[in-house]
Amino acid sequence: MNVYVYGVGTTSFGKHPDVPLAKLAEDAVLEALLDAGPGAIEAAYVGTVFGPFGSGQRALRRLGLLGIPIVNVENACASGSTAFHEAFWSIRTGRFKRVLALGLEHLTSRFDGPIAPEATDAEGRSGLSLPALYAMSAARYMACHGLTDRQLAAVTVKNRQHASTNERAQFRTPVTLEQVLSSPMIADPLTLLQCCPLSDGAAAAVLGARRDNPRDVAVLSCVLRSGHLWDYRSKHVWGQDLVSTTAAQAYKHAGITPDEIDVLEVHDAFTIGEIVTLEALGLAALGEGGRLAESGVTALGGTHPVNPSGGLISRGHPLGATGLAQLAEIVGQLRGDQSTRQVQNARIGLVETMGGGVSGIDGNACVITVLSGAAQ
Amino acid sequence: MTDHPADPRPRVTASNHSVAIAGTRCGSCGYCCLDDSVLCMACGSTLSPACFSPEGTIWAGTVQRIEVNGRIPPMILAYIDLDEGPRLLAHVTGKVTAPQVGARARLVGTTKEGDPLAEVIC
Ligand SMILES: [Zn+2]
């Protein structure tokens, strides 16, 4: 059974301390349901990291989406993408005809500053934050591949520029390389403007079987993997092997090569994340990813625009909502709906989300989805 | 419910000027780790307790300049690949700068909060 995205919806992303989580979720779901058109939702898959127990039921109660299977999932930053993955396979295998995938998060009610490392985890108990984990990848790249501070900062400059016309993005003001580099150091060499913000928000998608609606976007493949051990035997920085093995499978299932991808949304929680991920996705050779943003290849107007929404760094990173926010951007791109940030003639799009935080493994989960628009 | 669940950090042992770190080694494939696991995470065979010597090479390092979980910044952190096997996350003493990739390092004990503590060997 081929799978299509019928509709997508999101909130605006940012700090919404006074808006209840259920209200954010309702706004995203209603937009997705209207976009999809009439038809009964047969099941809902809901991703969140720090939401309350029964997050899906709490989010869908006032919409009357009850009495159906509601499955709550958690996979760190890839929770929303994991919900989408489960929704995809429920249609693909013929179990359901139309389902909802929802991601939601209200971080401002949980944290004042950075997300607290998990105290039952060896590295978390030692105080290792996610920015510091990514910072060590950046340090490794600088030493081994000659990555520069300016190449790192170029990722933020590009993604801020992309977000400048995205009215739902958290940060819409462009910044310069100098501003990025002179912002406070968080974990050497990553400065504040190279780190994603604390965000609230929700995003949703309605998926179903083929119905010959020209606005439906086909899901060519959707692959979920968890990381192997990451230890003294690992030659690559944290997460790189997980993304590349997940990508290989996603490309095989979709029957495409990286060259054919017109537009991507990838996990740039920190600038180095986008660089390492694009290498793992095959857009640059190992150690060469720093040149992509610097040279304009991944900017709007370049040959492989990456994170036209502004990415996690500028659109915002409400953990569980992120994967579906990325998906909504790519669906909009493949429909030609994105006006000032539209990638011309985009036919194939890719979404990559990475979740981490368990010490000793190469990522909690990576989800990669390949989509194609009606022109395909 | 407790605020301080059992300490999951690697166990550093210090006695008479010698520091070591406890872990396990697989008798079948040789895999080394700092967990007190029962089965080898690489091959599934039975593990034996092991004790690793304190020297190694910096895989990567950073200075964490934000407060997390009440830990006061700056914190100098590094992944150290110990000569006898495991990769260890350690705090590093000395000047507030990221330990250099490839530098030699040596475990010297634990921080007052109980984290493995190393120094870069000049
Ligand atoms: Zn073994």
Number of helices of chain B: 0
* N→C terminal distance of chain A: 18 Å
The CA-CA distance between the termini of chain B, in Å, is 45 Å
Q: C-alpha Rg of chain B, in Å?
A: 15 Å
| Ions, cofactors and other bound molecules | zinc ion
Sequence stretches where pLDDT stays below 50 over 5 or more residues of chain A: none
In the CATH scheme, the class of chain B would be Mainly Beta
Contiguous low-pLDDT stretches of chain B (5 residues minimum) are: none
Mean pLDDT figure of chain B: 93
What is the total number of structural domains of chain B?
1
Question: Residue share in helices of chain B?
Answer: under 10%
Characterization of the model:
The complex is a heterodimer of chains A (376) and B (122). By secondary structure, chain A is of the alpha/beta class. Chain A folds into two domains: 3-111 and 200-216, Thiolase/Chalcone synthase (Peroxisomal Thiolase, Chain A, domain 1); 122-198 and 220-372, Thiolase/Chalcone synthase (Peroxisomal Thiolase, Chain A, domain 1, 3-Layer(aba) Sandwich), CATH 3.40.47. In chain A, 35% of the residues lie in helices and 18% in strands. Chain A is built from twelve helices and eleven strands. The model of chain A has no long low-confidence stretch (mean pLDDT 97). Chain B has 122 residues and is mainly β. Chain B is globular and about 40 Å long. Chain B has a five-stranded mixed barrel with strand order 5-6-7-9-8. In chain B, strands 1, 2, 3 and 4 form a four-stranded antiparallel β-sheet that branches. Helices cover 0% and strands 47% of the residues of chain B. The mean pLDDT of chain B is 93. In chain B, a hairpin with a 5-residue loop joins strand 8 and strand 9 (116-120). Chain B has a single domain, classed as OB fold (Dihydrolipoamide Acetyltransferase, E2P) (Beta Barrel), CATH 2.40.50.840. Chain B has strands spanning 12-15, 18-26, 32-33, 47-52, 55-64, 75-82, 87-92, 104-110, 116-120. Chain B starts with 11 loop residues before the first strand and ends with a strand. Classes of the chains: A alpha/beta (376), B mainly beta (122). At the A-B interface, helix 4, helix 5 and strand 5 of A face strand 3, strand 5, strand 6 and strand 7 of B. Bound molecules: zinc ion.
